[in-house]
Specification:
homotetramer; alpha/beta; 2 domains; eight-stranded parallel β-barrel; four-stranded antiparallel β-sheet; 11 helices; 14 strands; 36% helix
């Protein structure tokens, strides 16, 4: 941590700050420049870090505090340079494979779910997605089938052999959802729901952590750190688009983040081109880009007849389009030296 | 709702869409232009609204769906044109008064809380703020004293007579927090935590709903609609800055939103200049602007010695600065024809 | 400037960097921490500054370079702590007054211009605004009357005595516009048109520099520095809203920037609530906020019949609304201890 | 165009609006709903479009105007569905090839330019990039060698046979730059410099139009329409990242825009991963993503020793890294069924 004093800071100010640092057990490296005094703090204990930055910025004669260390540790690349590989049943996430998760936005009925599950299995998907608890901007919209939806997902898993992923939104539902799902999904709106992060952190099942639509990469990794700090290291990051001024697409897919996460973290990184674009016609092209840039997998919305979907119809692929997507990304997967594993 | 077909939509497409609408009980108003066919939908039932937009956007031959009605109702201006006034003890929120809420970011200890409570009371504040459960980007930071903090807040209320406001972050804590607080606060990170919104909606105490840092005004009003839809109409909106590319300030205070909410909704609207700027030196000037534009109150962070604050020190006012703020806004309050009520 | 090396930087790397610094004439302050080596650079010559940051960030073993000094000087507060006051004819800009600039977006015809000029003069405006060269997103829209418009503005000045402000968009037009106008306006799209900034910097007439809609406050002040660096110190900054995800308003008025500029710079700072909101119904409330926060003036669009305006009709005030705005801000101006000078 | 009236609009309002429309020669399609009156406008002449939207939004009883047609025509996909292919010497831009443009940010000296030109030619680049006129946020930074730089670029072309691309920033320089360059580059800061767009529109050389860092895809296509409207149809679009809240990278590369432009326009679309990331370590991965998503080429910064670069060192590739980039994208280019043409 480096503390930069204001140009008119007095010697007494400086000394009081140094005394404060020493009383906390830190070493001090003083640099008196022509225009500014700069204090290097030596030996910052990891867990105090965040508060110290604010603490010293609160001094009236301090201009700025520059943190040096990254604000996360367990999910940082140096913690596990070889990269995390997660196994869910026979499915490998991370490592040299590209994993395909697909299914409807929402579990609407047994028929549509089973039809979709069978189809995506036959087409080559590795994991079945589907929402039983759904966030919805309007209080009057459909909020999912709840436990009934979870049971249907479990039945679909029985039939197809595909592991399932589904969202949990409420700390009170973690146990219930955990009875059925193979992978917890934390949605974009809950990336900074710290109670929920801690709760899934105490579970022993993998968690897909979607990026908050207005969260920086660093905040996202800190959210992952919450989960890891509770002992659950099986975290899959998922870039799903951020909110910007652009309005042709529903969100802006931050493909830089795919490459950045690969250099900052050891966790697998997925892309969700359905939410990142909001437009079915762009999903395949953006999936190809995500895989070429280094994504470990994609999660896409597929629906037997998107125009009857309860939610996310405009961005859901038809069965035929999903087959085309798989066909289109295969050569890209190979071009980057990866493989799509068989799903049986 | 208006449905605009793509330029190459076929007659059969159009007819299938019209049949779909009619089967749902809507009237149809067809307009065949030179370049586009446009279908006006007549009689949309309020509660279906959201899903219908997505439903029809999912048709491959539909270019765009334009909703006509606002996606909220209970919190909209026409529902209560005179405006909502909320009474908490002797304190009036909304109407012609400007209400001052002040206190520390976090309840750190009995001493600092009582000292602050006494001071802000003496200076003229109407409500005491203070966090017992604190969201924190880092899992290693301080997360608040929990119930101990709530008890201290209640004691401070006993002593000063000031009603209290404190944040609730977890559905499981709503009952506990409700035992102590006078006003629930929903923080920016939980604006779209729909489970939590519904839970406080079932309570019979006022709720301050902070705007999500990346939420539009319309989404914010829909979040308020969640609370209202459960029967709790005592909602105070609070603009606390949105996330933009600007980085000199912690957030960008969207003062347009103050004026916009006043024309769109009947709910009282507050400003939080502490979080909106992140810089103590800007808090008073921005408070003055907020009040001049029409805010019904401000909520600010005050700390006996900001440089020792556990959190938000850089944006916390000293006691002296808080007095100056009150002095500075008084003439502005009068200039806009409002009053600051005495706080005893 | 502080240079932070990567955790795996080698001693030889460090030494090569230090040698580079010394060869450029800088002193070096070395701080070897437990986790990082940090190099403080002493004596950075002002004019090299920008390039040095990039220069050292380009070293593969450098993690980050932290500049210490502000990247502008002539427009910074310390350069002229008392604040700049600009006189245009009898009109004072800056100091204790609040100055009102008003007029149509575009000079459409002699009739509408003269009618508007007479009205805003009678109502109390100090400066007449009007566009002769208009930026327009579509190539097929109206682009202004050009020199004819300038002549009409000059005639309106003759008749009313109001100084005029008009936009210049092309380096080739600076001389022509300068023949007529009293104040040059640089529009938001040209804030980073450095050729144009330099060109108006060589003129001896005041320049209003609107903030780029996606420019930080620091970049804006650097743009002002361009003008000042050519010898023209009579610069008026104008916040006109920035581009964000919010779409109820045309832009997001960054009122923090009003307060921030007042602490960072000695230049007068104006607000343009017409562009900042894009909605006539919000213009007065936001003007009041801007003045309360410390704006030295406002510039608003007024039109005899906004619904026939060639451009910016939705945000133009009617004559009656402009009178109401003036009435509404007067008590706010007084509340902050300023005055609106008589305009004759 | 559809005009939605406010819920309290009167019949007389409606009729005055219809009369206005009819007087302008439009047909009217009236739809009286339960809650709103909606007026469909039939036969909007293309060139009036923009102004009509604002015109009708300015009516006090109009809630919203919804334009139906796209605000560009010449650059829209339907105008040339087969796609534009541009030939510059032997180099083909667009069609089934992927074109590589490379070179230093700035022409610094003959030696570094020729060394880089020879290298990128040998490595397989098709076009040499290099700046002679440089935009720079600070007035005190290096602004390029001007005509000397242009001459050096022309010499490098002589020696290597590579066509050149260089930026023009000032309308007064278009003729001069045109004497030397093969392709004009319009930088991000000038995307909405309409005078400059018109000026290069009158030239008969291709123009690369970079996207404004805060411009929507639609505004970008309208900027291209400016150029096309002057008769120059040889336009190359280039996505170079947009400004968002994310700060780990210099900009956010909007890869959705690559896919979107391919469905909206017939113009070739390039990616600039150097500016889009600002980090050398991410350039190759993002280039791979851009090509997989459908980019017709990439333009990257290469420098013999980035740590001595006058500008953009942190994002410039070394020679070795540029070779690695070409190696890495080749299989991706093939995976999407394209080719990288030989450059001799």
């Amino acid at each position: 941590m480096i503390i930069i004093l204001q140009s008119d800071a007095k010697v007494a100010d400086r000394d009081s700050l140094i005394a404060d640092l020493k009383s906390r057990g830190y070493g001090v490296h003083l640099s008196e420049g022509v225009e500014r005094t700069i204090i290097g703090v030596i030996g910052t204990p990891e867990r105090d870090k965040d508060n110290l930055v604010e603490h010293f910025e609160a001094f009236p004669f301090v201009e700025r505090v520059v943190p040096i260390l990254k604000p996360y540790k367990l999910v940082g690349k140096p913690f596990k340079p070889a990269g995390t590989v997660i196994n869910v049943g026979n499915v490998q996430i991370g490592g040299g494979t590209v994993c395909i998760m697909a299914g409807p936005c929402t579990v609407e009925s047994p028929e549509m779910l089973f039809e979709t599950a069978r189809f995506v299995k036959a087409a080559g998907a590795h994991v079945l997605r589907g929402g039983a608890f759904k966030p919805s901007t309007s209080p009057y919209s459909f909020h999912g089938l709840g436990e009934t939806g979870l049971k249907l997902l479990a039945e679909a898993r029985e039939e197809t052999g595909l592991p399932i992923i589904t969202e949990v939104m409420d700390t009170r539902d973690v146990e219930l959802v955990g009875k059925y799902t193979d992978i917890f999904q934390i949605g974009t709106r809950n990336m900074a729901n710290f109670s929920l992060l801690r709760e899934v952190g105490t579970q022993r099942k993998p968690v897909m952590l979607k990026r908050g639509w207005a969260s920086t990469i660093e905040e996202w990794l800190q959210a992952a750190e919450y989960i890891a700090s509770q002992g659950n290291y099986e975290i899959i990051l998922c870039e799903r688009g951020i909110r910007t001024f652009e309005n042709y697409t529903r969100n802006t897919f931050d493909i830089n983040a795919i490459a950045a996460v690969r250099e900052l973290s050891h966790l697998p990184i997925f892309a969700d081109p359905s939410h990142a674009t909001g437009r079915r016609s762009l999903v395949t092209a953006v999936s190809m880009g995500a895989v070429a840039t280094g994504a470990d997998g994609v999660i896409v919305e597929v629906h037997p007849s998107p125009e009857t979907a309860v939610k996310d119809g405009p961005q859901s692929l038809t069965f035929q389009q999903f087959e085309q997507l798989l066909e289109a990304i295969k050569p890209v997967v190979e071009a980057v030296g990866r493989t799509i594993a068989p799903n049986a």
